[in-house]
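Entry 12.
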Amino acid sequence: DVRWAGDLPVGQSFQYRYPDSPLQDVRVRRALNQAIDRDLINESLFRGKGEIMVRNNYHPTRPAWDPSWEQRFPEAYGYDPQKARELLAEAGYNQNNPLETNMMMVNRPEFGGSEDVQEAIVGFWSDVGVKVNMLSWDKAKQSAKSRAWELDNHFQIAATSSHLGLGI
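Predicted 3D structure (tokens):
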């Protein structure tokens, strides 16, 4: 969930920074996940050498890994474009009122295929009726908007070294 408490005094409850963001709705987040064919991206862009991260930034080699995460992943987040459309409809989005979001196109130096993956995700989201604005901002503009808390419905690709042997 998109929450921020960094500017709240100790003892106050968390407040949602962007309460009106469509990303606050779990159905929207699930739909966006289920619209992505990770296996096709893996085969097409990584020759099958990629690994599905069923728990973001957390690898099965880390302590406290829960194997049930892998068992629950396909139903909750696996590729199912029909389910993605249904979830979006339940959340109030359809052809007449499409979900609109933003993909900040970022070329990650440690991940040469980052823009290709982002474009693939945009394509999958578009296929289920999401209107995606592809934004190509320089780092200064992106940082300024982030500091001003203006990124309420935006995505960008990130890289992680989630394997124990690769860094902590």
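Annotation: The chain has a mean pLDDT of 85. The beta strands are 100-104, 131-135, 154-155.
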